[in-house]
Amino acid sequence: MMKVPVMIAWLKRAEKDPRILDRQFYYDGKEDLTAMQDIKPRRAIAAGRKYTVEELLHYMVNYSDNNATSLLYNALPPQELNAVLDGMDVDNDTSAGNNDITVHGYSGFFRILFNAGYLNREMSEKALQLLTLADFPQGIAAGVPKGTPVAAKFGEFNQGEERQLHEFGIVYHPKGPYILGIMTRGRDAKIQAEVIRDLSALIFTEISNGSPVKGPGGMQ
């Protein structure tokens, strides 16, 4: 789930100098971090090639490629990533062994991107556009009518037999956009994805049948 703040940190750099998105990094392939992913990226960067930051953001956000993430993460000074967390007022417990974060805390990334409260409007829109291309059709997007825009990011974490599968996003409902965050624990990622899908469908239906109250900035 740290892919979203990593993306934000790079786009914050690009506010000052858009040329940073053309900076290139070389992937030597000595370590394949996608091997630990249960949900494999449909597309991933290839060993022996150079990629621009723009391309790496695409692989990291759209396909959840851990190798692209590693290149971007390792090129960020820790203080820059911490500045994102502090500047966005996200309740993040960095002292915990697993760097835990609450549903409310993580949803803060999406609230502030939607309202352009940390990045400027151009870069906030760029971030949301990347998130609408995320390749995880079996989660939140599966629970809403086809064609409904969803700007979302999923994440997984495995510890022993336990599987954690989470997804957060903005669903652009015809009545108004809303944030949805779902965290699951279990032993079968497929079943957990189905839970996310079913909850997404339930919430979409409830909003369709009701009259949601608009929150700040038009967000429900």
Could you outline the blueprint of secondary structure elements for this entry?
Blueprint: H1 3-16, E1 24-27, E2 49-52, H2 53-62, H3 66-74, H4 78-87, H5 103-114, H6 121-132, E3 150-159, E4 162-173, E5 176-186, H7 189-209
Antiparallel strand pairs: 1-2, 3-4, 4-5
Helix pairs in contact: 1-2, 1-4, 1-6, 2-3
Amount of beta strand: 15-25%
The average pLDDT score comes to 89
Based on the structure given, which CATH architecture of the largest domain is correct? 3-Layer(aba) Sandwich
User: Strand arrangement, largest sheet?
Assistant: 3-4-5
| CATH level 1 class label of the largest domain | Alpha Beta
- Counting DSSP H or I runs of 4 or more residues, the number of helices is 7
Order of helices and strands, N to C? Answer: HEEHHHHHEEEH
Structure at a glance:
With 220 residues, this protein is an alpha+beta fold. The protein has helices at 3-16, 53-62, 66-74, 78-87, 103-114, 121-132, 189-209, and strands at residues 24-27, 49-52, 150-159, 162-173, 176-186.
